[in-house]
Amino acid sequence: MNLPTTETLLLEQKDHALHITLNRPSVRNAMSLQMVHELMAVFESIKDDRSVRAVVLRGADGHFCAGGDIKDMAGARAAASKADENSDPFYTLNREFGRMITQVNAAPQVVVAVVEGAVLGGGFGLACVSDVAIAAESAKFGLPETGLGIPPAQIAPFVVNRIGLTQARRLALLGARFNGSEAARLGIVHTVCDEANIDQELQDVLAQVKRCAPEANIITKALILSVGNHELDTVLDNAAQSFSDCVQGQEGQEGTMAFIQKRRPSWAEDCKE
What we know:
Elements: E1 9-14, E2 17-22, H1 33-46, E3 54-59, H2 70-82, H3 89-105, E4 110-115, E5 118-120, H4 122-128, E6 132-136, E7 140-142, H5 156-163, H6 165-174, E8 177-178, H7 180-186, E9 191-193, H8 198-211, H9 214-226, H10 232-248, H11 250-260
Parallel strand pairs: 2-3, 3-4, 4-6, 5-7, 6-9
Antiparallel strand pairs: 1-2, 7-8
GO molecular function: catalytic activity
GO biological process, one term: isoprenoid catabolic process
Organism: Alkalimarinus sediminis
């Protein structure tokens, strides 16, 4: 695996999972434009790497992400004062985050978010595009943008997709703050743990990922994400073709034989019970 060099992220591959740690602890891992570009570069570098079956997103020193970096906003303001009429630094800054979160949303790997401490703004949005989200009970979630005089512009569509229009409207328009249990009730996260149990919960999730066939997971995730974005008949036509290809392919044959022979398939041979 050929990963890019990063300054705002810590990268470590453990077995079938790439662990990405947002690493700007002095600002509660607020997301700078540099971090956005580094995340995009990392996800681009692994998109075709089948040795990476899961990506774990986490923040350093007890916080996931406190949102966007105010310094970047100040920088965009300074640039805007010097920009010509054909450029808009604020648009560029905000839209880059949207491109990054779209890329993470569509990543072929299983994306697991482990969220603790601050899960605000952009961090909230990042949690909403994970396939599996594990939260500390004490985590603090919120969309504070409207209290700062700005909209949650790139985040809002993903929040709506995650929890539905009714709750998204309430959270965004009130700037509500809430803990891990409420995040689970709303469907933002799937599991809530005490901080002491989060690592074990993560290991359990990664073990479950390993029991699933890698290509089948990739195809399944793409199928799920296509729902609502294409005509239903088109979705079902594509799904039938994917099913046929998989049944006749290497994973389908191996999975069937493993079931008949009462053994684990090759992709899960070293999984623990």
